């Protein structure tokens, strides 16, 4: 006779009843106008904000990951100056609140008139442009997300690099591989098993953190729904619209992360 787990059945019943009650309470609440949610779910301004959110998250993630790899490799350097500089980078951009970093980057025009790319100690300018033309709300948001994300992802990259045994480095040196080749062909492929899961979480976290760029009117999804709520005076309904889109995108990213982790585990 199979063993009957009455505790599991009772626990599952309690969960289902509680969930059903919560759904019914929200769905039948007279103070929520679900018609407003349906009317604005595919509104042009909301979809435009969603596209900008996806764009700034994608660009910020790629730029932040590039910075994180550089900083993570620097953190493992034998040079105390190099590793110390990387540690300061991580400390600063992991410690500054994202909203403060957004305000700083978005208001660079208060500190600098122009952004200039020049050859040091020569006075030769390769490129120059006014800050107001370069640091738009969109690019300020991307920059802040990338800098903040690099602080966290650099530690993820460092942990992945340290997870590869020292014997792998020694074997590569014995074969005559340079340090760059060892990092590219030996260390990083093995470190990806450790790096990919937290990077997926970081991507989802960056997507949610992008809602904060509404403080500088970055044109993202949250900026769009808050702008509409200021006209319709249905703040909760518009926040539900934004939440549904965030949940939909995160669901897709979670599925992609699952298969990517399985693929990396097979190698």
Written overview of the protein:
- The protein is built from eleven helices and two strands.
- It has a two-stranded antiparallel sheet.
- α3 packs across α7, α5 packs across α7 and α10 runs antiparallel to α11.
- The radius of gyration is 24 Å and the shape is flat.
- A hairpin with a 4-residue loop joins β1 and β2.
- The chain has one domain: MetI-like fold.
- The model has no long low-confidence stretch (mean pLDDT 86).
- The chain has 267 residues and is mainly α.
What coarse outline follows from CA principal-axis ratios?
flat
Order of helices and strands: HHHHHEEHHHHHH
Which topology does CATH recognise? MetI-like fold
Strand content: under 5%
The whole-angstrom Rg is 24 Å
Question: pLDDT below 50 for ≥5 consecutive residues: which ranges?
Answer: none
CATH class, named: Mainly Alpha
Question: Quick summary of this structure?
Answer:
With 267 residues, the chain is mainly alpha-helical. It contains eleven helices and two strands, in the order H-H-H-H-H-E-E-H-H-H-H-H-H.
Please write out the topology.
Blueprint: H1 6-27, H2 34-40, H3 44-75, H4 80-95, H5 98-106, E1 114-119, E2 124-130, H6 131-134, H7 137-163, H8 166-174, H9 179-209, H10 221-232, H11 235-266
Antiparallel strand pairs: 1-2
């Amino acid at each position: 006779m199979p063993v009957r787990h009455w505790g599991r059945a009772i626990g599952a019943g309690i969960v289902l009843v509680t969930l059903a009650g919560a759904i019914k309470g929200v769905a039948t609440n007279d103070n929520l106008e679900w018609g407003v949610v349906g009317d604005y779910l595919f509104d042009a301004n909301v979809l435009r904000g969603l596209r900008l959110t996806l764009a700034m998250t994608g660009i910020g993630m790629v730029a932040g990951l590039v910075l994180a790899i550089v900083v993570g490799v620097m953190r493992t350097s034998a040079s105390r100056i190099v590793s110390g500089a990387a540690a300061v980078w991580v400390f600063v951009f992991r410690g500054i609140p994202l909203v403060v970093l957004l305000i700083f980057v978005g208001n660079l025009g208060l500190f600098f008139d122009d952004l200039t790319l020049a050859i040091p100690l020569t006075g030769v300018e390769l490129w120059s442009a006014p800050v107001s033309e370069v640091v738009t709300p969109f690019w300020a948001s991307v920059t802040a997300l990338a800098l903040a994300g690099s602080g966290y992802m650099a530690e993820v990259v460092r942990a992945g690099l340290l997870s590869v045994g020292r014997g792998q480095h020694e074997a590569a040196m014995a074969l005559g591989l340079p340090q760059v080749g060892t990092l590219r062909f030996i260390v990083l492929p093995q470190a990806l098993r450790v790096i990919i899961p937290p990077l997926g979480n970081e991507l989802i976290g960056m997507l949610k953190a992008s809602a904060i760029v509404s403080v500088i009117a970055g044109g993202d999804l949250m900026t769009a729904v808050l702008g509409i709520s200021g006209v319709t005076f249905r703040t909760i309904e518009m926040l539900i619209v934004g939440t549904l889109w965030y949940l939909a995108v995160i669901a897709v990213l979670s599925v992609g992360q699952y298969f990517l982790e399985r693929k990396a585990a097979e190698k």
